[in-house]
Amino acid sequence: MYPRRSFLDFIRNFVRKRDFYAGLLMVLIGSLFALKGPGYRTGTLMHMGPGFMPTALGVILVGLGIAIAIPAARLPPGEEEQILPVQREWLAWGLILAGPLAFIIGGEYGGFIPATFLCVFVSSLGDRTITWTGAVGLATVVTAFGVLIFSYLLQVQMPLVRWG
After folding, report:
1. How far apart are CA 47 and CA 143, in angstroms?
2. Which whole number is the average pLDDT over 130-138?
3. Partners of 43 in the beta sheet?
4. What is the pLDDT of residue 46?
5. Confidence of residue 76 (pLDDT cuts 50, 70, 90)
6. CA-to-CA distance for 96 and 125, rounded, in angstroms?
7. In the chain, is it the N or the C terminus that has fewer CB atoms within a 10 Å radius of its CB?
8. Beta bridge partners of residue 48, listed in sequence order
9. What phi and psi, each to the nearest 5 degrees, are found at residue 129?
């Protein structure tokens, strides 16, 4: 049937599975939100309170984390992955982390449209295969959808364009 493995082999196989750890982290964060959310008034589906969304999203995050972690834990020993990549992409990581900073600075001095465009443009440059025109096109499309969704549908109170 199945070859017998020792407990130590089982643990060694577990350590190399990054999807398992990602799922575990999602379960941990979702549990914190799901446990903290009911401390506020949750309300009902028709009249949601401030604790409804953190609780609901926490439960969904726990479910997704379990759905990611269980298949990763069941991988055979030959299909393990390293937790960190062999060749680290420092520039890509830096650009992706700089994206939210670009949104904050762009939002403070330029409004929603420049902030969204800058965030997506800077973050997309972290992809080695993207071209300048591809980054501009992606940033333009995401900005258009962001304006449609957040400004017109959800009516978020952030000016679209402002100076200073």
Report:
1. 31
2. 93
3. 48
4. 77
5. low
6. 8
7. N
8. 43
9. -90, -5
Say which amino acid occupies 26: M
What is the DSSP code string of the chain?
-PPP--HHHHHHHHHT-HHHHHHHHHHHHHHHHHHHGGGS--B-SSSB-TTHHHHHHHHHHHHHHHHHHHHHHT--GGG---SS-SS--HHHHHHHHHHHHHHHHHHHHT-HHHHHHHHHHHHHTTSTT--HHHHHHHHHHHHHHHIIIIIIIS--SS-SS---
Amino acid at residue number 57: L
Q: Which residue has the tokens 């501009």?
A: 136
pTM (two decimals): 0.58
Q: How far is CA 147 from CA 74, 105, 115, 134, in A?
A: 43, 18, 11, 20
Spatial distance between the Cα atoms of 17 and 55, rounded to a whole number of angstroms? 28
Q: In whole angstroms, give the CA distance from residue 140 to residue 111.
A: 15
| Mean pLDDT, residues 24-40 | 91
Distance CA 138, CA 92 (A): 17
